[in-house]
Amino acid sequence: MFILDTNTNTESWALYRYLCRNIVGTDNHIKTTRLLNTVRDDVMSNKRLVTITGGSCGEGLEMRGSDLDMIYVIKSMEVYEDEKSHGQFNKNVTYYKMETDDVKPSFTYLLYEQNFTNTSLGDCHKLKLDNGKYYLSSKLFQERLLGNSGNGIIHGPCLSDEAEFLDQCFCLHCKTWISQATHWILRSDNSWPSYNVKQRIIKNGVLLVPKRTKGSVNKNLEWQVSFSLSEKMLVMTFTHAQLLCYAILKILLKDVIDTNGEWQGLISSYFVKTIVFWISEEFPQSVWKPENLIDCFMRCFNRLIYCVEYSACLNYFIPEYNMFEYRIEGCKRKELLIRLYSLRTYGWRCILFSDQISNWYLSMWMDHLEPYTLHTIEVAQTLNSKILMVSNQLNVVNFKRGNYVNKIGIRQIVSYNQSSLKYLYIHYMSLWCARNAQTIPLTSPRSSNKRQYNKYNSCCRTLLHTIYHDAVSGWLMLASFFYKTKQYSKALYIIVYSLSKCTHEKLNRFMDMSDLHYQLIKLKSIQKKSLVRLWKIMLVDFMNFGKNSWLIPNELQMELENRESCIPSIVYAYFLQFLCYYHLNNVRQCQKCLHTLQRVIAEHYLMEKDTSLQSGAYNILGIALHLSGDREAASLAFMQSVEIYPHHRYNSSIERISLMS
Q1: What does the alpha-carbon distance between residue 429 and residue 423 come to, in Å, rounded to a whole number?
Q2: H helix or E strand, kind and range, residue 111
Q3: d(Cα 110, Cα 95) in Å, to the nearest integer?
């Protein structure tokens, strides 16, 4: 029985409003984020990989310290448990059979099946011979992927970047529900999850990720069953109060529990999510309301303490798998319990030790938020989303997609009657075209005139589709094309048009919105527009040049050595304008562009509050000054760039200073 404390109703409502406004976002914001993820994943998927945004971001949550988890399901390899339930086998797919006899629950070996594939054993060099049978080695699988990526580290089942912000998990798919998790189908008699949700989860099957257990004899051959897709679907069914309860637990874990001590890192947010699943199954959905938020949180927190006390956190789908085994034990467990008991003496107010929630009481006197205020909050939260910014670059995995993405996008744009979905696909197709156009070689000594002409037209056509994801950057990419083909007058015409859009009411990422912006967003005509339509009109996004881009000016080629280059659009516009006049030998206009560029950078006008982008702006200024012959001023600009962002690998100003000396 769920006993409610009616004395905390007022505090629960205040906490609910505070989280919506300042940390998690409104229900509508969460839905928008999820829809953005879904469409982006669809556009990014190709004939070789299915792309899925995982982790908290995939669930619609972005909180302080959140990273970006991307899941890539390899289509050319497939897993099955029982050949009778599998159905027809595809000759173009390599199949592996699950063997679970000698492994712990939730883990398996993957036996190479020669009977159902035309792939020769010699081609599958990730396989390892063991007792006369061939098994897919999870260790070699990861090492090969790491070698292909060229950088990063192995972090659990994922490949992570140096900053550990981006986790990429390459995995295999078993299209049928596995026998180890059969009990879950019939376990719950309550309303959550519903029958229909369960059926959709079962239909999606499970994933297999390269993760091993401690102490296993053949751990390098082990794979773990992952229910990432199932868990994502379950979180999608949460009420907003349920999601906020999950968010509070994550905040408590990261900001209060996991700060220091021997217990640091013992409890992950995955364990917290598992506890919320168990609690959700035990009680009806009607309990998860804003006025019950604190009671729901305390029930989950007490369950967490219980799990640590008994060193048992059972996997939600396979309860035989105790995720705390060999993890929460000994002295570390005792110290962790002391910490948890201490926090429990404060009751629900233990969450106030987090600086994110410490001033929540201001919401006690907050009235119901007006629709325009909610819309403003949603706009601001999306603008400040680092995860959306990174994921929107659509190049997390460097696989050639050819025309496949283009076909998906066009098909979806044509087929959907709902205008909001059409605009989403147009938005992401525009982003993809901006990346794809940069891969088309504009010059080649071996190409015939006809072939060169076709490439020119192909690039130009692609660039005309890049103007739909924001107000300026797509036009400037087209201007770059004309600059690279030495059509300076055309480039200048487009630059002037682009700069005419860079007005005070425009938005850019990580900005502090002014009264002008708030008044503008209040307008009903603006509120009626979806976020992606708003970006098309009002967002001045930064320029993003991929590695070996054919569209970046030759003067900036150093910026692309082993990395991408991001430049504030307004800075790039004036720099490109300067370059055009420089090649036209128009000294007066060159000086005018330089002065304006200096003023824009000094005033941070329409520039993102990001150290790498601000550093890049001074680097651009230094290059322009150096071309104009002012070596001293150029050196000062480069030094300013280094002072803001002193990273040798990602800031070419360091190398430019050494070349000048």
Answers
A1: 10
A2: strand 107-112
A3: 9
Q: How far apart are CA 321 and CA 555, in angstroms?
A: 57
What is the C-alpha separation between 363 and 340, in angstroms, rounded? 27
Nearest to 271 by CA among 283, 260, 279, 262: 279
From first CA to last CA, the distance across the chain in angstroms is 76
Query: How far apart, in whole angstroms, are the C-alpha atoms of residue 282 and residue 274?
Result: 13
The H-assigned helical ranges of 206-292 are 228-236, 240-251, 269-282
Token output for 57: 């971001």
| DSSP character at residue 119 | -
Residue 406: what pLDDT? 56
List residues bridging with 166 in a β-sheet: 68
Tell me if 183 sits within 8 A of 88, measured CB to CB: no
Threshold 0.90, pTM exceeds = no
Residue 558: the pLDDT is 86
**Contact yes or no for 478/490 (Cβ under 8 A):** no
Look at residue 501 in the predicted model and tell me its pLDDT: 96
Cβ(452)–Cβ(444) below 8 Å: yes
Contact assessment for residue 626 and residue 652, using Cβ atoms and an 8 Å cutoff: no
Dig out the tokens for 237 from the structure: 């069914």
- Separation CA 286–CA 239 (nearest Å): 9
User: Hunting for tokens 């006993």 — which residue is that?
Assistant: 3
Average pLDDT of the chain? 86
Residue ranges of domains in the chain, CATH in brackets: 6-24+63-366 (1.10.1410.40), 553-661 (1.25.40)
Classified as helix, coil or strand, 263 is: coil
